[in-house]
Specification:
about 35% helix, two-stranded antiparallel sheet, globular, 6 strands, Alpha-Beta Plaits, alpha+beta
Length: about 160
Amino acid sequence: MAELRTLMEGLGHQAVRTHLQSGQAVFTAASGDEESLADGLAAAIERHFGFAVDVIVRDHAYLSAVVERCPFPAAELESKQLHVTYFSAPVTPDRFAGIDQQDHLPEEFRLGDRALYLYAPEGLGRSKLAERLSKPRVTKGVIATTRNWNTVRKLAELTED
């Protein structure tokens, strides 16, 4: 993570911080939109580390809105039960048409703005619904990355500054 921070600072980003060993970084950019910043970071990471990674960049307003608009009673759940999958682009309900939510109860998912909220009472590792949601038919054409609720909240908090 220290090497990632140094790389990002070398690109001109300021106040670079990373969250645990998760690959999540928070920074201030002088200019650029989310897509161009993500493309620039992905290219720099590939050049420096020698492998390609998918990168999604989101601002504080978006990350805070994801927390605020959670359709599940987040305060009542353990972090291992609630997850958010961030998508690089908007996704529509038709992407999920082949998934019968009734077949997966008590697990549930709800769509948000470029995000999917997943309630998995037994955790992500045991979730049959999470497995279905990660199939190529669902994720085709978009970058998707899933984080537990603690990380979702922490990233919103870290971007407040």
